[in-house]
Write a structure and sequence with these properties.
Structural class: alpha+beta
Order of helices and strands: HHHHEHHEHEEHHHH
Number of helices: 11
Helix content: 40-55%
Largest sheet: 4 strands, mixed
Strand order of the largest sheet: 2-1-3-4
Shape: globular
CATH superfamily of one domain: Glutaredoxin
Strand content: 5-15%
CATH architecture of one domain: 3-Layer(aba) Sandwich
Number of strands: 4
Radius of gyration: 19 Å
């Protein structure tokens, strides 16, 4: 695919990227939250934190103590998908599921600048979109929804019913999902580990490109949101958006392919890694 077409298609799927009101009183007071009901209606709940790591630590500790899962939502108030997910999580039917099964924290990603400490903690090198939804088993601190977490990049198009079904399914099958991280029936897990390591190395190289891209498009996004001209923002943001979407789809396919290759009857197959066009600044 040519760079020109890559940029053009990126504009077509111009989307939100990137990652906090911490719902706990240690970061934002209960009085502030209770007196500002509009944040639940608008979804503008991603606020700066003095210590995101501490916010996540407290959420995981609370989840462990209450036998729940930790739900970490990384997003931004400038992103309509992030705001849409936040409003859904406080809809009564959804909130009932969340309150019963999860301890929830919102992490503000800023303009793609506050992302690395939280996301890398759970085995991912970078966030690919806003919102990014992490569901973590508090005892092992393992991410258990990696297989379908990227659907939330289009949170605005996901219905209330689908939201209920998603969080109900993950909570109901938390032990099965956790067990699948170490054992899959009929799969040579040692071989799968080697295959996944090669995928991880590929993903890390792509993540390095994304961090560089965020360092360029993030300030342009901030300038645009503050009323500036942000020269060439749409073209640059669009090309990065297309790349991120294509990459996450490719990574999902690679993980699925690795499982099949690790099955005894598919042992001679090899993984196929995609190549991507260079950005204009590369």
């Amino acid at each position: 695919m040519s760079k020109t077409l890559f940029g053009f298609l990126g504009l077509v799927i111009f989307v939100c990227v990137a990652l906090n009101l911490n719902a706990h009183s240690e970061t934002h007071s209960d009085k502030t939250v209770s007196n500002n009901k509009s944040i639940y209606e608008t979804g503008n709940i991603y606020l700066p934190s003095d210590d995101q790591t501490a916010d996540v630590d407290k959420t995981i500790a609370k989840a462990l103590n209450n036998n729940k899962l930790a739900l970490i939502v990384m997003g931004a108030n400038w992103c309509h998908d992030s705001r849409s997910l936040a409003t859904k999580l406080f809809q009564p039917d959804v909130k009932e599921i969340i309150d019963a099964n999860y301890e929830l924290v919102f992490i503000d990603v800023g303009y793609m600048s506050n992302i690395k400490k939280v996301i890398t903690r759970f085995g991912m090198p970078v966030i690919y979109a806003t919102p990014t939804v992490l569901i973590v088993d508090p005892k092992t601190q393992k991410l258990i929804n990696a297989d379908n977490m990227h659907i939330w990049r289009g949170a605005a198009s996901i219905s209330i019913l689908q939201t209920i079904e998603y969080f109900t399914e993950v909570a109901k099958n938390r032990q099965t999902r956790l067990a699948a991280l170490s054992h899959i029936e009929g799969v040579d897990m040692a071989k799968l580990k080697i295959l996944n390591q090669s995928i991880n190395e590929f993903e890390k190289r792509q993540a390095d490109r994304i961090y560089k891209a965020y360092s360029i498009v993030g300030p342009l996004l901030k300038e645009k949101k503050e009323g500036g001209k942000a020269k060439d923002f749409e073209q640059k943001w669009g090309s990065v958006a297309l790349y991120r979407y294509k990459l996450t789809d490719d990574l999902t396919k690679l993980r699925e392919q690795a499982i099949e290759v690790a099955r005894e009857d598919k042992s001679q197959q090899k993984l196929t890694f995609a190549e991507y066009p260079a950005f204009e600044w590369e």
